[in-house]
Design goal:
Distance between the termini: 29 Å
Order of helices and strands: EEEEEHEEEEHHHEEEEEEH
Helix content: 10-25%
Strand order of the largest sheet: 1-15-3-13-8-7
Largest sheet: 6 strands, antiparallel
Structural class: alpha+beta
Strand content: 25-35%
């Protein structure tokens, strides 16, 4: 299947754009150890956005993989995980901040390093939100594609260093017209003092039509209800 559009996000870069419903968003890690922070909003009503607590609670999980959906705060499905070579994407550890980035990798700034300065997820996402008529206060929990984070028996959050190999892929299907906001910045739990530099390719492709037998629709009863809410929303829009 030929892609409709594609781009490569190099380390530290950000991107945002409106993608219509019925598209595949295919992400490919071009090297090992990728991390892409993802936010989603209803493109027709930016007050509706990805709701992390509801998505995880309704699907009885703390991570995301094939079959899972990203639910909005209105109980609708923004996007679904339809293909996943990894089996685990982090939904709980959030994004990096300026202070944490400086503390771990050393202080940098644009005035001195220009494009080689080390970006934080918070700053990248806030810039893209502003470009789309939102504000920093519209930041919310992200999905960290390609990263695996779990809690051990002591309650500590653990980052898995060897989780993402070069060539790993994950594909989301847009179930609504969505504003997609991305930041190629490290997972906040990534260990070590060297800022990761892993490019990720994003492709947009036409998706097959969704029917009542779809895997994501039937993954959980709660998923089906969220899909029904989404379908009704578009029926009423006309």
């Amino acid at each position: 299947m030929n892609s409709l559009w594609s781009t490569t996000l190099i380390s530290g870069t950000k991107w945002s754009g409106v993608v219509g419903k019925g598209k595949y968003l295919r992400f490919t890690a071009l090297e090992k150890g990728a991390n892409i922070a993802l936010l989603l909003y209803n493109a027709k009503d930016l007050t509706e956005r990805y709701n992390m607590p509801d998505s995880l609670k309704a699907q009885y999980t703390s991570h995301l993989t094939r079959g899972n959906v990203l639910m909005s705060d209105n109980g609708r499905v923004l996007a679904s995980f339809v293909e996943d070579s990894l089996g685990w994407h982090d939904a709980i550890s959030g994004y990096t901040t300026r202070a944490a980035t400086d503390a771990k990798y050393g202080a940098t700034n644009y005035q001195e390093q220009r494009n080689d300065w080390l970006r934080s997820g918070e700053e990248n996402l806030a810039v893209e939100l502003t470009r789309n008529g939102l504000e920093a206060r519209d930041l919310s929990p992200v999905v960290n594609l390609f990263s695996k984070v779990f809690c051990n028996e002591d309650g500590d959050m653990v980052y898995c260093e060897d989780h993402c190999a070069a060539g790993s892929t994950v594909t989301l299907r847009t179930e609504m017209d969505v504003l997609v906001v991305l930041s190629n910045t490290p997972n906040p739990l990534h260990p070590g003092s060297t800022y990761p530099s892993v490019p990720v390719k994003l492709e947009v492709l036409p998706a097959a039509a969704v029917d009542s037998l779809d895997y994501c629709v039937n993954f959980r009863a709660e998923n089906r209800r969220a899909f029904e809410n989404t379908w009704n929303y578009y029926v009423l829009l006309g």
